[in-house]
Request: fold
Amino acid sequence: MAVKQTAGRDTLGEFAPKFAQLNDDVLFGEVWSREQALSLRDRSLVTITCLMAQGLVDSSFQYHLMTAKQNGITRTEIAEILTHAAFYAGWPKAWAAFRMAKDVWAEPEAANAMEEHQRSMIFPIGQPNDAFAKFFVGQSYLAPLSTSQVGIFNVTFEPGCRNNWHIHHAKSGGGQILICISGRGYYQEWGKEAQELHPGDVVNIPVGVKHWHGAACDSWFSHLALEVPAVEGSNEWLEAVDEETYSKLK
Reply:
């Protein structure tokens, strides 16, 4: 995607038209737009490191920090980038860079964690799962991926979120399959120990089995929920998972 920049012409268009043209059309229009060589995220990383190394923590540095954030560099990553560069560029320069980066990434931890979780998987988190909120403890999100032939939904749980105990019923067929895609969570059947879940794990849930699933207390968690075709299928929602049971899971 071509990067469009007008700052050169806006600021120096009359005083230094050639410099403005080179800035807008060559530096940003050509160099920054060469995504086949480096991604925009990679170019942001290189640029902020070079500027910090020169001690140029001015308005241009702030602009490139904001651009780096837009290009996908997270709060955790920028902290690590500046920490690493400090050993090569200089400790005082890092302090100056951190003061500005802290303001640019001054967003709630929860939102930042949600963004990082989204980047960890190819499927969207989706929208708040309001229609089923009464059957969950904590906030969940739902993204329908397929609603014909076989229903497939990406279900995302914030840390500590889990659904109530429930049972899938059907006259024939039915049940559910969970495919874990990101984060860490749990699945538990009534009368059995909870099973810790990680990306790549698959859980087959037969009809008639009382169970629950959700996130670990310190991790976002997403799984695909596949609805096995059923004749007269239904869900029976039961009581919430009690805090004592859940708190024992680490």
